[in-house]
Each structure stands twice: as C-alpha cells, then as structure tokens.
C-alpha cells in the first residue's frame, strides 16, 4: 500500500477520464437538438394532416364528392363545380386519391386550409385566426394565473402540512380539482351576473365600443374576461396546488435539504433549493397545457359565449364543415407539437441532468 | 494520538434524545457521556438503530423531528453548549464550527446547481467577504484530495462518482475552517479502493488541519484504520469506549466481543465468525430497566434484569457492564460485594467518579 503512488494515479485518472465532455451544452449541440425537434415536429404535423385528409376524403358519404355532385345538380358545369369544390376543400373533388392528396398538401404549404362551408366564402384560416383571439388570451391568462397561485399555495400547503392552514389549502385543492369546470362557471355566472350583477353575463366585449386601442374597448374586454379567466383559474388551480404540494413534500425529505441545513445555509437559500427542485416537473406540464389551449375550452366558451376555438370546433362538427374541422384539428396539433418541443427544450435549460453529453 | 493545540475538545454529558411515537416518547440516546479529546479521531460503531447517527446529529443540535434532545449538553471548545444554541446562532455554528459529512450514497448536493455555486451559497450564508479566497481554498482542498478543483467546481452532482462526491462533501465541511468534523458513514456504498482512499484522506486532512473528528460507521474495519479512539454503542448507550487498538484487541463488554467475533476473516474458516444471537433492540423493544443488552448476553446475571450498568472508567477504558465490573473487582480484590446486588448502586457511582 503506497498512498502517495495511489494518490498520484487517482489524480491522473480523474484528469484524463472526464465524467462528461462538457458540463454545459455547447451552442452547436443546442442547435442540433432544436433542429431534431423541429424535424420530428414537422413529421408529426404531416402525419396528422394526412390522417385528417384521409378521414375527410373517406368519411361515409364522401362530403367532397357530395358537394361536387350537388353543385352539378344545381346546374353548374362539371368544370365549374370542380373549381368551386376545390376552393372549398383545398383539393380537387375528382381525380385519383394521390392527385387530391398532393393538391391538399400543396395548398397546406401555402397556408391555405380551404374555405368554410357553414360560413360560406370565408377562408378557414381567417375563421381560426379570429376565434383564436378569444381563446388564447383568456385561457393563457387563466393557465398562468392558476399556475402561479397553485405553486405558491402548494409550497405553503407542504410546509404547513401538519397545521390547519395546510389542511385548508390541500382541501381547497382537492375540492376545486374535483368540481367540473362548467359547474364553477355556472356558479360564478349565477352569482356575479344574475344574483349580484356586477359582471357581464356573456360575450367577449360590449358591442357599443369601437374596436381598437381605446380605453372604453379595452376596459370592456377586461371586464368581460374576468369571469372566464377566474373560472379557468379556479378549475386548474386544484391540480397545480396538489402537484406542487406533493413535490415539495418529496423534496423536503431529500438528503440534500438536510445537508444544506447542516452546512448552515441561510433559510432563503434552502427555500430556493426546495422550490426550484419541486417546481421542475411542473414546468413540463405547464408548457403542455399552454399547447393544449389551442383546443380552447369548450365549456367556458359556451357558458360565457366566447366565440373561441373550442366553439369553432364544436360548431364545425355539428354543421359537418369538414374543411373547418380539418383546419381546427391541424391548429390544435401544431399547438401541442410546438408545446412539446418548448417543454423539452425548457427542461434541458433548467435541469442539468437531462442536458446532452451529461453522463449519469 | 496526535494532540493538536488548536483542536477543540468536545464533551457530551448526560445526553438523552427521545423520539415521539404513538406510545409516548422513547429514548434513542440515553444518558450518554462521551469526550472527544482535542485532535483525535473517535469512531462510533454500532448496529442500525443503536443511536449513533442521532448522537452525531446532536453535535450540530440537528436531531430531526419527531425527535428532540431531552437532556444533557454538548460542549464544544470555542462554541459553548450546542444544545443551548438556536436560530441564527445555531445556523452560523453549523458549517463554520462543526462540519458534517454525509454518506456518499446520500445525495447531499443540490442536483440543479454546480458544486461551485453551492460553495458560493455556503460562503454567502456565512458572511464570507472574500469569495475568491473561498474558491481558492476549496480548490486547494480538492487538489489536496487528488481532484482537479476547477473542474469539480464546474460540475453537477450527477457528473461525479461516489468517491468524488464524498471528497466534495469533505471539502464543503472543511472549507470554512470548521475544527470539529462529523463524518456519518463516510465509506458506506463505496468500493474497497475508494474506501481506503477516503479513509486515508480523512486521516491526513485531520492531522494537517488539527481537527477533532467523529466518525460514525458500522464498519469496524474502517474504524480500525482511521480512529484513535473507539466508542461502541448499543441501544442508545455507549457500552464501551477506549483507545481503538485496545478495544478491538481486548474487548471487555460482551457486546463488543460479540461484534468482533462476528467479523468473518478474509482468510480462514468462515464458520469461525459467529453472529450475535438475537436482534438489536428497537425503540419499542428497549427494556425500561436493567441492562439493554442482557437478552443477547452470554454473561447475563440476575442484577442485569433490574439495574442498568453504569459506565466505569479504568485504565483509560470505559465499560458499562455488571459482569465486567464483577470480574474486575475480583481481580483487584477491591470493594467487596459491589456486584452482589441492586442495593450497591451508590458505591458504584461513587467509584465511577474516582476513576474518571
């Protein structure tokens, strides 16, 4: 046993055999990662587009062909009917499946989703664009608000878990998590729009205001948004607080928290250690739920009469507006795919353990 | 034994730690006296549940809920009674006066921050003005332990091996110049070569920096290699304490002897190793009166059922056992009848003072 010799040998190995090439990913690696994600995302979107094409084309009764034939019956020439149907669906009603498919993909690449049937003549992209306005802002506000609230309250619920405050907070989480969103929405309308009418009962904005950046219009927008946002916040708050509470409790039991205390770290620093480790898994969920918001919230839009994406989708289904349906599906898909990419990149940025090149 | 003038002494007196359970408060550490001489390494061995980790946490007054220190004191030179400390005073003492090194298998580092950032957190928490100097000290310490300091400080916990983590733990415990260091199972879950390296580092750093060190372990071999003194714990009591070679060479307490007999030899017949019969007591099965070891003892006497043996010190060795007392008394032909019965408690206690 020659300690000096062994010591030298060890120090040599620890220099020449790095456990990981780099502790922080290089810009090149990040670029490669992003490129990979984008490629996979595009592939996913293409698959969904193809599936929705096949469904619309092959659905019983063949709506495309039906449209084409009904136009001929109305006295159009076959050429005219063909053109009109192509405008409607973005691809030719006749021809082989392959010709139709390439035509469809081609118009997709030009961001042409076809025209709506239920609102004749209006492009699907226009409809989706205007509906998205009424969905994205309230749902985004609700998601972020409930996340913030749930995370903060979750930390308190975990720290005070053996006290009354912790019980109350955990109970509020379970209760709100269990109550369906439409019950919360109806209750809030009943209370604040009917019994004690301080809030508008529906619609995204009062019609008497001129749209634009004037205080009256913006104020009315905000006023109308309060109940939907609060409903959405309350509906998703329960999930956040419960998840955050259990995460914090788990982290509190981790050895490194005790170690930090035994090293005499300041309370604030220990608290940051706890919070950052506990919030980590929730960021993925947050990114995904932001992606989901393009699906809209059908119940909330229905209750508060918001002409958002959720209502658009339901409307397109009930009126058999296939072009609009396909377009809405596509937008939801893109939202989720993008959110997945963002979630993954976000996680890479905030958790060193999943960075590429890190040896576990 | 390398007595160092700068090293502080640690005196544990009458320490009792109780844990709150549904059936009331049960003692995990019972009336323990233990002196860590300045500049020495003291090993504490015992089975799981013997109270050795609880004892270690007491040096930082960090017994975790539902446990609490019910009685006793832990005096550290230059710091005072740790049991009396609280709040900010206690926080500042941790890390600055008393360093604590976790078991390597435990993740004692924040997985989301580099070692360097955690070092800076440590410095800021203790009001270190010159953070550059702190980083320099840390690098020196890491280099002293055979590591590339700059690279380690840039690493995350998951990028380090068990042995490297353990050395990082030692660095974090020492970088603020703590003179009392507690190592909780420093070699558990490490391979044999790394174990030997860590123990050598502990010994060398201990000598160089003039520390008073407490090593908690259940590995008697590790203790033999590194410690000056050895304390054997059983059922929350220190049953034997003395210079490590003497305790291991001629164990007096029946439990210590059983423990040593149970170690299988690397060469030779494995059946020579005899496991101790029975199981170690848990908080709930600990007898309320008498000797805690009597159920597993081969030298059990009547008195063991009723009277708890008091630690007696002779020739620099402390043992808490009626049978050992009786034998010693016969040998020395002293104080007849001491071991005879329960009524002789007073002379025993008096004698203890005499020897101490």
From TrEMBL, chain B:
SMART domains: AAA. One of its GO terms (biological process) is peptide transport. GO terms for cellular component: plasma membrane. GO terms for molecular function: ATP binding; ATP hydrolysis activity. Coiled coil: none annotated. It is found in: Cell membrane. Residues 10-260 form the ABC transporter domain. It is a peripheral membrane protein. Pfam families: ABC_tran, oligo_HPY. The keyword Membrane applies. It comes from the Bacteria. PROSITE patterns: ABC_TRANSPORTER_2 (PS50893). InterPro entries: AAA+_ATPase, ABC_Ni/Peptide_Import, ABC_transporter-like_ATP-bd, Oligopep_ABC_C, P-loop_NTPase. The keyword Repeat does not apply. Keywords: ATP-binding, Cell membrane, Membrane, Nucleotide-binding, Transport. NCBIfam families: oligo_HPY. Belongs to the ABC transporter superfamily. PANTHER family: DIPEPTIDE TRANSPORT ATP-BINDING PROTEIN DPPD (PTHR43297:SF2), OLIGOPEPTIDE TRANSPORT ATP-BINDING PROTEIN APPD (PTHR43297). This is ABC transporter ATP-binding protein. The lineage of its organism: Bacteria, Bacillati, Actinomycetota, Actinomycetes, Streptosporangiales.
């Amino acid at each position: 046993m020659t300690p000096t010799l062994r010591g030298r040998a060890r120090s040599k190995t620890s220099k020449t055999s790095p456990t990981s090439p780099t502790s922080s990913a290089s810009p090149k690696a990040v670029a490669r990662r992003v490129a990979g994600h984008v490629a996979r995302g595009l592939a996913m979107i293409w698959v969904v587009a193809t599936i929705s094409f096949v469904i619309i084309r092959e659905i019983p009764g063949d709506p495309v062909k039906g449209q084409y034939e009904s136009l001929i019956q109305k006295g159009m020439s076959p050429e005219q009917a063909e053109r009109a149907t192509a405008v409607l669906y973005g691809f030719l009603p006749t021809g082989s499946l392959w010709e139709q498919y390439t035509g469809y993909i081609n118009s997709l690449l030009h961001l042409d989703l076809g025209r709506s049937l239920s609102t004749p003549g209006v492009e699907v992209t226009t409809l989706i664009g205007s509906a998205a306005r009424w969905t994205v802002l309230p749902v985004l506000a609700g998601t972020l608000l409930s996340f913030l609230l749930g995370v903060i309250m979750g930390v308190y619920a975990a720290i005070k878990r053996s006290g009354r405050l912790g019980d109350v907070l955990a109970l509020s989480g379970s209760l709100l998590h269990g109550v369906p969103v439409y019950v919360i929405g109806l209750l809030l309308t009943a209370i604040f729009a009917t019994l004690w009418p301080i809030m508008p009962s529906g619609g995204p904005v009062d019609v008497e205001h001129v749209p634009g950046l004037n205080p009256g219009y913006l104020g009315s927008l905000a006023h109308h948004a309060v109940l939907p946002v609060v409903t959405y916040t309350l509906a998703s708050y329960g999930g956040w607080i419960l998840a955050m509470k259990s995460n914090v409790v788990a982290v509190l039991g981790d050895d490194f928290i005790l170690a930090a205390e035994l090293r005499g770290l300041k309370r604030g620093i220990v608290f940051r250690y706890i919070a950052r480790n506990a919030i980590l898994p929730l960021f993925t969920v947050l990114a995904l739920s932001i992606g989901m918001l393009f699906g809209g919230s059908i119940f909330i839009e229905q209750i508060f009469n918001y002409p958002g994406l959720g209502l658009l989708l339901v409307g397109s289904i009930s009126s058999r507006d296939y072009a609009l349906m396909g377009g809405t599906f596509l937008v939801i898909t893109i939202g989720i795919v993008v959110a997945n990419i963002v979630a993954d990149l976000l996680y890479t940025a905030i958790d060193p353990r999943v960075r590429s090149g890190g040896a576990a | 034994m390398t007595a160092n003038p700068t090293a502080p002494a640690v005196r544990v007196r009458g320490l009792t730690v109780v844990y709150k359970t549904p059936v009331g408060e049960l003692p995990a550490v019972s009336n323990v006296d233990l002196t860590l001489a300045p500049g020495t390494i003291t090993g504490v061995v015992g089975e799981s549940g013997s109270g050795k980790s609880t004892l270690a946490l007491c040096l930082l007054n960090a017994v975790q809920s539902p446990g609490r220190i019910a009685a006793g004191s832990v005096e550290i030179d230059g710091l005072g009674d740790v049991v009396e400390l609280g709040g900010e005073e206690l926080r500042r003492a941790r890390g600055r006066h008393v360093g604590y090194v976790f078991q390597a298998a435990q993740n004692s580092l924040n997985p989301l921050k580099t070692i360097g950032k955690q070092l800076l957190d440590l410095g800021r928490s203790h009001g270190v003005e010159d953070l550059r100097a702190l980083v320099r000290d840390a690098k020196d310490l890491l280099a002293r332990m055979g590591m590339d300091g700059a690279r380690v400080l840039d690493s995350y916990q998951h990028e380090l091996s068990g042995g490297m983590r353990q050395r990082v733990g030692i660095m974090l415990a020492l970088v603020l110049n703590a003179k009392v260091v507690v190592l909780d199972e420093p070699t558990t879950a490490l391979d044999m070569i790394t174990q030997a390296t860590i123990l050598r580092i502990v010994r060398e750093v201990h000598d160089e920096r003039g520390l008073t060190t407490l090593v908690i372990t259940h590995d008697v071999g590790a203790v033999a290699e590194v410690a000056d003194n050895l304390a054997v714990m059983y059922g929350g009591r220190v049953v034997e304490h003395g210079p490590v070679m003497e305790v291991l060479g001629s164990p007096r307490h029946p439990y210590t002897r059983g423990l040593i007999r149970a170690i299988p030899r690397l060469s030779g017949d494995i059946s020579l190793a005899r496991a101790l019969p029975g199981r170690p007591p848990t908080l709930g099965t600990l007898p309320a009166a008498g000797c805690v070891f009597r159920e597993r003892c081969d030298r059990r006497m009547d008195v063991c059922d009723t009277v708890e043996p008091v630690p007696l010190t002779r020739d620099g060795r402390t043992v808490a056992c009626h049978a050992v007392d009786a034998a010693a008394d016969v040998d020395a032909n002293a104080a007849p009848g001491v071991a005879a019965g329960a009524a002789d408690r007073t002379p025993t206690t008096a004698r203890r003072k005499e020897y101490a």
